[in-house]
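Researcher: I'm preparing a figure for a lab meeting and need a structural model of a single chain. I don't have an experimental structure, so a prediction will have to do for now. The sequence is pasted below. Please return the structure as tokens so I can convert it later.
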Amino acid sequence: MAAELETLRALIDAFRPPSCPVSVDAAARRAHEFLAAFRASGSPRAGILDTSLSLLGLLALAGTDGGRESVRRRLTVMDSSLPPLRDLARLAQRLATVVLYATLDQTGRPAAAQAIGYDVFADRPRGAAPVVPAEPRLPADVVVGPAEPVPGDVYDVVVVGSGAAGSVLAARLAGQGRTVALVESGDYVPERYDAGAPERPRPHDELDNLLRYYKDAGLQITDGDCRMSVLQGQCVGGGSVVNNAVCFRMPEQVRSIWAREFGAAWAVDGRLDAAYDRIARDLRIAPVTTAVPDGWINPSARHLASGARALGRADALRPCEVNIEACLGCGYCNLACAYLRKRTVLQTLLPAAASTGRLRIFAGRRAREIVIRSTAYRAEGVIAEPTRGGGERRVIRGRRVAVAAGAVGSSALLGRTTALNPLALPIGERFSFNFVSPVHAEYETPVRAFDGLQMGHYYLEDLPRDGFVIETWCSPPATQSLSLPGWMDELHENMQRYAYYASASPLVGSTSGSKVDTRHTPERIWIRLDGRDLDRLKHGLERTCELFFASSPPPRRVLIGARKGWSLAPATYRRAIDAIASFDDVQISTAHPQGGNALDPAERGVVRPDFRVRDTRDLYVVDASVFPTSLGVNPQWTIMAVADLAAAHVGGD
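Model: Understood. Here is the structure written out token by token.
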């Protein structure tokens, strides 16, 4: 551990600007604590990160005096070298920068973030004494912790995953009179902040919230055509706890394709719309202008609106629909809503299901394998183990099993279930996702995009023609630093203008050529994109820049997430974006993985249109992994509506 601390100190010193109010020692301690907690979380990716840090110690420090300038020179050589070395150098920059901006001082505030104009919500006038409602806590006899014994009960349905799909399914099944075991690899962490409850981090503590609420603390990285992060929730409530609460219905052209090519008649015959309506009533989905009564919405939208008006496209910028009520605009949506204004499944559907007496949640347990009777391929439960290790595997038995662990997790679980191998199902295939690429418009006067609901508006002209939607967004400084371009001093200079940026991103629904490879532990996500994906992204980047440059007053410049040529002017942005030749030249990420267990009545699918795994009995998949194509818009509402539809099949006689 001493060697690790030495490596962390050297890397942080290399990237830390001399004016930073956080000391190298303080940041190194915070990084060391984060890594220790990450290892203890049970993430199978902890070993990968350990290997990367060891390599950085050898490649960046060995043979040098360990001084700041020598390490900086070595890292800069790595950044200009082959992709594996460049990836290591960029990992070092991301880790050091995030830790610097997330390290808290003695008052519990991020000093480096405050130095660039950021105010934690508690220091804003409306955040000094906010009214926070009581949280509907799940009863102690409903949540079975990883150290507690597994009862010998046989449940009507075992549901794997408690996110947007799993919680809806569990609630509907409990409402039908079925007994449900809900298996969740993450912990039960209440959302409401209570200074006396150590399990809930401070609302603005970016590192601790990543550890508490996200799969692999947000460090799930892909392979293949590009290396990008895949953000997914891992807690009771899943992604609904950490998403932006944005709600879209499935676009009409996607419905038609699903019905025509994949047998999903329910997408066009009214059943899906009825399910949307039921979810809307449960979560009280409403336009953001209603949900945020005092207008504390990301002000980036004002600049996009100005540009849209100047271009004669004012009607293309629209308010999102959201599952939020009386939002305070703290800007912590992705860190879980400590003020309970987001109507997550943890605040709505799960407490309602628990009140029936027919729900039991096994938290902190990872489903390792589905129990399959060899004859007739009948599902009879799951084998689960404590996520953090240190305990025995136990069987949670059920008459039916519904897998709702997300596009990556569900594919991995089915792939680990060796009893399914003879069926030769295309598990993990047809993986797709919505991806974004960050755009920052720098203005002369502060924008303070952080001071409001993170995502409130979207820009849409013609989705079938263009293939993208533009969304406003903003994050607290540590995570925002991951989206800004530049190397070393360039990134530092860009971060100094944090409060002056309006932020937006084109969102593109990818083609379905990627794959979740379940032969590895942890599973590997192989990305395969083609020219259509790149063309749509470049078109989206151009339109986003065009909107910002047309705003009044115009920005000083616009930054895109390119490796080079990222600072753009009105006369240069089209040429610079046109020069992007591959996804290796530009930053993308996703929080919307889809596919992997695509529904299809033919043999090319894993799941039939009734959500039952092909050629099995009593085994269902009910989440975004069944999507045969990406939606091209935020999938939360559709995931929930599909789970609502599936409940009739899973719970039927």
